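Just scan my protein:

——
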Amino acid sequence: MTKSFKLAEELAKQLQSLGHIKHAWFTTFNLNMDFFERHVLSTLLQMDKPRSRIDFELMQQKLNGGIKEGRKGNANIIANMDVKVFADQRMYDASDLKRTAIEVYGVNPALLDGGRKKVLNNSTLFHPKVIFLQDEDGQAILGAGSANLTLSGWSTNQEVFTFQRVECQYQVEAIRAFFKPLFEVNQVETKISFPRNLRSEITPSDWCFVHTFIKNSSDGKHKTLLSHLLGHSDEAARDLVVWSPYFPSDLAGFIQRLKSVALPHQLKLHLVPDLVENQRMRTQWSEDLLPLFSDESMRFYRSPIAKDERSELCHAKVWMTNDKLAIGSWNFTTPGSNLDLDSKGAGQVNIEAGIILANQQPLQTVLTQLLSITEDNFMQSKELSQHVLEVAELMPVETRVVFDWQTLTYHIELLKIDDDLAWQSVELHLPDLDEPLYVVKTASETVYATTHKLSQEPQALLVNHAYELVLTNGLRYRGFIVEHNSMMRRVEEFESLDDIFNSLIEGRSLESNPNASLRSAILGNDHDWLDEQEAGSLSEPQSSPTLSYFRMFQAMDSFEQRIQTLKSDRMIEQYAFVVPGCLVEMGLKIRHELTENANVFNWYMKQEFNLLVDQVKKNANDSDLKARLSDLRFKSNDSVIRAKELQNSIGSGQYRSLIKGKCNYVSI
């Protein structure tokens, strides 16, 4: 692999300590899809950075895994990887080009954790940056920190991140409690199991995964960052060191509230801000800060870690006491600290997460450069407004679109968030549908669910993985479609029917066949790849042998013989619908021949194809698979060769009857 970003290198190092990865789940506030697929996903798959469309499809094939024939004809999917990304719905752009079928979920924070809208509401941000990795044996690693899944988060910003191995049941339950609301709201059914030999109790040296969803079993209150850092101490004074780029507008008021949480201990704050232009903090001056300066209960410091000249922002969030070190997404703000998590008021709470470790470093080693702060180091309201985070509005309709590649069916669920919105003003645009979908009048007041089965293989969905929600007032919202059974995406094909027959006759494997290439629908406008292919061609393409009766019969027989060796429906399904030269592709190319030429040879080829489909159907056991195979047969209205043409081309009806009887053809 080529040299990567520092965090990507650390991720690669963690992957080396595990076996084959079974689950890889990511949460982020901001998401850049192109960056994630190029740099994070390629690191996860231990592949070179993709350069062309075919590279991305190779990544997807590795994600899909493969099907291996087992004993007694059983087939299992092997080496597949479950990759999921959860991002704040407002902070990723589904207009970004998404080149793989990984599952990406836009999160509406107000719907999480039972929809506790008194605490989690439309102003709540989904802010955690978490990575969960687990191999096939159940061994797991959890990562948390400040880095979003963006180019700046993994390269130019100054960030902090830590990875820890899961070693006890306490950590397991915290991980499950974090992902459970995300899975429930998105109707994801994923179960994770861990080794039975994990310790049942946590020790003082163990790390803790702390997040907005975790609660005490005794009183039902949340186990917050502040309760871990400021509680359970015999010290008279509690020193708290915090790195944070963002501060509350009312800094003095927030600190007074922190002091009330720290009681009966005296709280001494040591703050390490990110200074804009090396001068100003992202908060306003207030006379209420003067007592905090005078009694030295609040002091400011420069970071002991010099910022690289290429770094635009110190985005790290670190909280330290004499005995605890917290690395996560918590800013030094009211929402970021989850200060109001158990409040009955209307305070804002963000969804945050991080890891708390035993602190092995004396505080004085990081508090080496005291800052002399004056009123000039604070921003005026106009400048502060330029640094305020701009967050778009949540979708007025929570939209879940799932496409099943096995059944070619869209599963759609719309949940109305804005009560004033009329269903009649909503239309949903989906790839491979010529017309938008509208909500029917019989829909319930808040929820609408429907399915839509495609009549043929999707093509647009191979490259366009997004839906678009359009309102009559002109507003448009985009989100990513969740794709299930992506192993059933047919992404490769042969250039011609003759190429399929050649591979079958010569006994070549259809899978990973060098004569197959990406479907034209996928290549699309990938000019770089097309130019590269053209430049790499040093010789004139060789012409293939002309189609003939013998070659056609021989190829059909070869396909049938291969099917006879398959003992499982999963393998039959691949040869019927997925691999290059499968029945679907063969049927499409034969249909094209029928359209171009109404001759006797094509009539025979159509009959042989139907016979082949029937033979494959006999080998299948599953009734649904049999029905899908039946749909591949040519019908009477599929042929351009009509009865009069048959009479003129083949001859007498008696002769045609003889042919059908000898060949077991069925009249169509």
